[in-house]
Design goal:
With 297 residues, the protein is an alpha/beta fold. It has one domain: Rossmann fold, CATH 3.40.50.720. The strands form two sheets. Strands 5-2-1-6-7-8-9 form a seven-stranded parallel β-sheet, with helices on both faces. It has a two-stranded antiparallel sheet with strand order 3-4. The protein is globular and about 50 Å long.
Length: 297
């Protein structure tokens, strides 16, 4: 392990399972003290299409995994849909680990539905999670980052935020991902605009999204049976790369997790940093609007 983040602190939202947990593990393996946060310390219950799903994974389990690997993590439960809990999260993280050098906006809500049948509440929740929450948490961390001389904000994007492949695939006609995708597209543009605003403060702001999709507990109910998902380690590594260079060298990017390491020749390691993984070429069926260098075309 290179300990590239030794002495740094990080706040990773939605880190009780899946992508958020993997990112927290990877940052901790590089020496960061990580605050992991989710709605509660117990398994989450999510209602989709009128049916309740119990999603495995807890904050305590994430902390245990990090500590077992020799890292440091602190769990703070906060419901990001609750204005009071949301408003106090950054201050609680600062109290726990002394600051926030890295913010990863990963937490989300996805309930796919066609435009015609989607409930207004689902629309509102989707936009709140993927645009309003990153806006508010970014607002909250910027003053401390500026005072500290810099920092990194990474927003988790999606290739669905890019224009769909033409001619339209059956997925685009039937998946019901339009509002989710529109929110992710807005998050990409938010990131690029914020990057311009805070570059002079040495705060780097970037997007990292899966080149295809990652089979997380939350995504399993949304992806079609037999879908060829990508390993989460490649996304976690790409997030790490966005937290290591000053804003003058790397900011305002929309990067994708298989394309970016492949094109840049970046070694991808296991989540504990102890083992190098094989180079993994992006599949030919990935969205062609992802450029060869792994960025948004």
């Amino acid at each position: 392990m290179t300990q590239r983040l030794a002495g740094r602190t990080a706040l990773v939202t939605g880190s009780s399972r899946g992508i958020g947990r993997a990112i927290a593990q990877r940052l901790a393996a590089e020496g960061a003290a990580v605050v992991v946060t989710a709605r509660s310390t117990s398994p989450s219950r999510s209602v989709r299409d009128g049916r309740e799903h119990v999603l495995e994974g807890t904050l305590d389990e994430t902390v245990e995994l990090i500590e077992r690997a020799g890292g440091r993590a602190v769990a703070i439960a906060a419901d990001l849909e609750d204005p009071v809990q949301r408003a106090g999260l950054v201050d609680a993280a600062v109290d726990a680990v002394g600051g926030v050098d890295i913010l990863v906006n990963n937490a989300g809500f996805a309930d796919y539905s066609s435009i015609e049948s989607m409930e207004e509440g689902t629309f509102d929740r989707t936009l709140e999670h993927y645009l309003k929450v990153p806006f508010l948490l970014s607002q909250a961390v910027i003053p401390g980052m500026r005072k500290a001389g810099g920092g990194w904000i990474v927003n988790i994007g999606s290739s669905t935020g890019l224009p769909p492949i033409r001619p339209f695939r059956e997925y685009n006609k039937t998946s019901g991902d339009v509002i989710y995708a529109a929110a992710k597209a807005a998050l990409h543009r938010f990131t690029q605009g914020l990057a311009a605003e805070v570059e002079g403060d040495n705060i780097a702001v970037n997007v990292v999204g899966p080149s295809t999709a990652i089979m997380t507990p939350g995504a399993a109910a949304l992806l079609p049976e037999g879908y060829e998902a990508e390993p989460v380690e490649y996304l976690a590594q790409t997030v790490l790369e966005m937290c290591t260079l000053p804003a003058t060298e790397r900011t305002g990017l929309v990067a994708f997790s298989l394309h970016f390491p492949w094109s840049q020749g970046i070694a991808v390691t296991s989540l504990d940093g102890g083992r190098e993984l094989p180079r993994l070429e992006p599949p030919a069926w990935a969205n062609p609007n992802i450029a060869a260098d792994g960025l948004e075309a």
